[in-house]
Amino acid sequence: MRAKLLVGLGILFAALLHARPASAVQIVDGDFHVDIVPDEGEETCVTLPESLHEPESCDGVDIEDFNQRLRKAIQGDIGIVASVLVRGDERFEFVVILREANVRTEFDKATARAFAQGGVQGLRNQLGEKAMRGVGDITPTEMRRNGVQMVGYEIVATVPPEDEQHATSALIQWTAATAHGRYTMTFASSPEQMPPSRALVERSLSSLRATPGARPPSAIVHMIIGAAMLGGVLLALIVGLYFLVRTLMRPSQPPKTYYGYNAPPPPPPAA
Question: Which of 153, 194, 205, 219 is the most exposed place for a label (fewest CB within 10 A)?
Answer without folding.
Answer: 219
